[in-house]
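$ ./design --mode recover --in tokens.txt
reading tokens...
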């Protein structure tokens, strides 16, 4: 899901110099870059055989080091230009972070190469400079696994040495690396490996999960966490809960945890329109109100997800138990409806508190050539984060409407009244689904598109007309082709759910 607008940036000379010098040397010990005056001289001619055995043996190590260094720089640059747009980052100087960055960048390149025929052009720099031809045919899949293993090994070492106790920087680097590794897993179809990383994170309470999951390679000690890293992990936790249909791992009732991350709430857990004096507000002057509203919606979506997955169980996690093992006594329909109404009120208050930037600046019928989009509007927002947040809002409204508890059958209601209610719900969810697609059709930025996958999936579940279904499939397919972000899992599920014929 999308990162906060106040995400961490790549800092230091490590990546900045890459922009100006195509073939720098990477000093693995001091994490600095030295530009080369004659870069071509440092790329050995691998086809040359007119050298003596002694010189060839001596140059092999230099050759391998040079190849590794340049490949790492390709990945660092690609991360900054590609996946780094939606992954929070602190620095490229830390070895653990560098391994995680290279892993996700290599995986992204591999995914793009699979999806696009002209993959060789992916390695062109912004200034038209090419990397050495030697690396055009690099095995990005292998390099991705290699750097991933390095990152896991360094993460284990950091935990064993308790480096997170050395200072705030070390702690942030470690947790940022875990965040990136989680997204590394998520770039493929969501599976248990991704959830395993989340389960091992320090901000998640070690509560027994009724649905057994494999253990993460690293179990990280619990430690406070703030800022964009926290919200990135919170969004991943929410997405994992949606996909696996389980409760969120994060305790949404642990208000000190959320207030520490900058969420302004009162004692009963209701959102406040401002941050009270003395609150743990970690936002900086560069952060916008839009970031705060996006974070608030993440928290509300978590509450909605937990409401849905708890069913009528008295203890929410009981509903995750297999049929036959669940308690026979549940929450009454009246109580479920009361909870639902409270969430509706919270979501409405959040919507009413939005600044003007969350209003669409323009609407118009789709003017492109794809016939499946002909009946849709294009909906533009001034800020990308507002576009992404509003897609999630419309998804939240769909989830609330289709999961509205019914009044007890003891309360007399005519058949006509109930059917009218059902038809109104169908009309409303269809409207929200089209809004989601309309935002995706307005040429959003890559981070917004990557963030839109789950919203588009929910919109697709609403549609029953063939051209609308095809529109969602096309939007999801283009995301995978253009961004390397796997959507085949979502497309396959939609096709399986839609009535045939």
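writing sequence...
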């Amino acid at each position: 899901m999308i990162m906060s607008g106040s995400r961490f940036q790549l800092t230091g000379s490590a990546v900045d110099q890459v922009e100006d010098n195509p073939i720098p040397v990477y000093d693995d010990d001091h994490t600095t870059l030295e530009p080369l005056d004659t870069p071509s001289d440092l790329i050995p001619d691998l086809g040359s055989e007119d050298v003596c055995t002694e010189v060839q043996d001596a140059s092999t190590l230099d050759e391998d080091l040079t190849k590794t260094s340049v490949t790492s720089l390709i990945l660092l640059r690609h991360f900054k230009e590609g996946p780094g747009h939606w992954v929070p980052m602190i620095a490229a100087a830390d070895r653990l972070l560098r391994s995680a960055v290279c892993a996700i960048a290599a995986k992204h390149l591999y995914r793009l190469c699979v999806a696009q025929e002209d993959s060789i052009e992916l390695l062109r720099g912004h200034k038209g400079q090419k990397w050495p031809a030697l690396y055009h045919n690099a095995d990005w899949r292998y390099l991705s696994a290699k750097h991933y293993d390095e990152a896991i090994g360094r993460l284990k070492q950091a935990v064993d040495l308790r480096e997170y106790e050395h200072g705030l920087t070390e702690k942030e680097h470690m947790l940022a690396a875990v965040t990136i590794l989680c997204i590394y897993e998520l770039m493929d179809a969501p599976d248990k490996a991704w959830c395993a990383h989340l389960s091992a994170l320090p901000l998640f309470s070690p509560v027994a999960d009724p649905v057994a999951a494999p253990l993460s390679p690293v179990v990280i000690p619990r430690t406070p966490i703030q800022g964009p890293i926290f919200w990135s992990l919170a969004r991943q936790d929410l997405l994992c809960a949606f996909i696996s249909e389980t409760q969120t791992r994060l305790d949404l009732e642990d208000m000190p945890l959320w207030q520490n991350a900058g969420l302004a709430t009162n004692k009963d857990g209701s959102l406040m329109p401002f941050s009270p004096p003395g609150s743990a507000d970690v936002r900086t002057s560069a952060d916008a109100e839009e970031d705060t509203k996006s974070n608030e919606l993440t928290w509300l979506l978590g509450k909605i997800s937990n409401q849905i997955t708890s069913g009528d169980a008295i203890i929410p996690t009981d509903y995750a138990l297999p049929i036959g093992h669940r308690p026979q006594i549940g929450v009454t329909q009246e109580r479920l409806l009361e909870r639902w109404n409270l969430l509706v009120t919270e979501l409405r208050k959040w919507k009413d508190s939005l600044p003007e930037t969350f209003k669409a600046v323009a609407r118009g019928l789709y003017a492109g050539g794809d016939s499946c989009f002909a009946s849709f509007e294009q909906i533009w927002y001034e800020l990308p984060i507002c576009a992404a947040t509003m897609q999630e809002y419309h998804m939240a409204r769909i989830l609330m409407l289709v999961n509205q508890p019914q009044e007890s059958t003891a309360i007399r209601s005519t058949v006509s009244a109930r059917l009218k209610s059902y038809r109104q719900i169908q009309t409303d969810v269809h409207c929200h689904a089209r809004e989601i697609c309309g935002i995706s059709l307005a040429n959003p930025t890559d981070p917004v598109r990557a963030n839109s996958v789950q919203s588009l999936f929910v919109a697709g579940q609403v549609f029953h007309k063939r051209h609308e279904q095809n529109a969602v499939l096309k939007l999801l397919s283009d995301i995978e082709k253009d961004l390397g972000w796997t959507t085949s899992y979502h497309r396959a599920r939609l096709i399986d759910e839609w009535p045939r014929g």
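exit 0
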